[in-house]
Amino acid sequence: MAVHRHFGCGFSEKVYQDALEIEFQEQNIPFLREEPIFATYHNQKLKTEFIPDFICFGSIIVELKAVQELEDYQRSQAINYAKVANMSIALLINFGEPSLRYERYIV
């Protein structure tokens, strides 16, 4: 919320990502930024990598958007990242609306 209060809406996703990284550091929230994750098929790791914006506390996918309105494919992306990473929680945060919007998914 602090990042959205500071910038409001209208910036690119990377601006919010950079600021949120600083906020995580200041709040002592453990995170990995843009850490590749890989899906498996028949117990074999696929070559295609998926890159969530953040993995927090080693168990929460955090996916950022800066769009006017969230769409179902963006929701599916956050959920699928959590599934691929074998994590049970995904947060989808949209900085593109006048009020910060977030959605939490239990996978």
Word description of this protein:
- With 107 residues, this protein is an alpha+beta fold.
- It has a single domain (2-106), classed as Lambda Exonuclease, Chain A (Alpha-Beta Complex), CATH 3.90.320.10.
- It has helices at 2-7, 13-26, 72-84; strands at 31-33, 37-41, 44-50, 54-56, 60-65, 89-94, 101-106.
- The strands form two sheets. The protein has a five-stranded mixed β-sheet with strand order 1-4-5-6-7, with helices on both faces. It has a two-stranded antiparallel ribbon with strand order 2-3.
- A hairpin with a 6-residue loop joins β6 and β7 (101-106).
- 21% of the residues are buried.
- The mean pLDDT is 97.
Overall number of domains? 1
Low-confidence stretches: none
Proportion of helical residues: 25-40%
Give the strand line-up of the largest sheet: 1-4-5-6-7
**What is the number of strand segments?**
7
Average residue-wise pLDDT: 97
Strand content: 25-35%
